[in-house]
Amino acid sequence: MTCTEFLTILDDVIDESIAVETRIEIELHLRKCGHCEVVLNTTRKTIEIFQCHEVYELPTEVSERLHTAIMENCKKVR
Ligand SMILES: [Zn+2]
Predict the structure, then answer these.
(1) Which pTM was predicted?
(2) How many domains does the chain have?
(3) Which of 3, 36, 44, 67 is the most exposed, fewest CB within 10 Å of its CB?
(4) Which residue segment(s) compose the domain that 29 sits in?
């Protein structure tokens, strides 16, 4: 799994609507990629905060900014 693949299915990961095999691939990727781990944790926390305020949709702007930031970081590492 690549960072791009991970980010593509991030919404499903958060929803936990992913297959067991995919979940294993994600765990393997997160073990060697700290950036995606941070993205996942940050996104989860952000969604929790929004849910506390009874807003269930993560604003597109927020998730786009998050995705852009992480892709920039991944590029720097490579
Ligand atoms: Zn990654």
Answers:
(1) 0.62
(2) 1
(3) 44
(4) 3-77
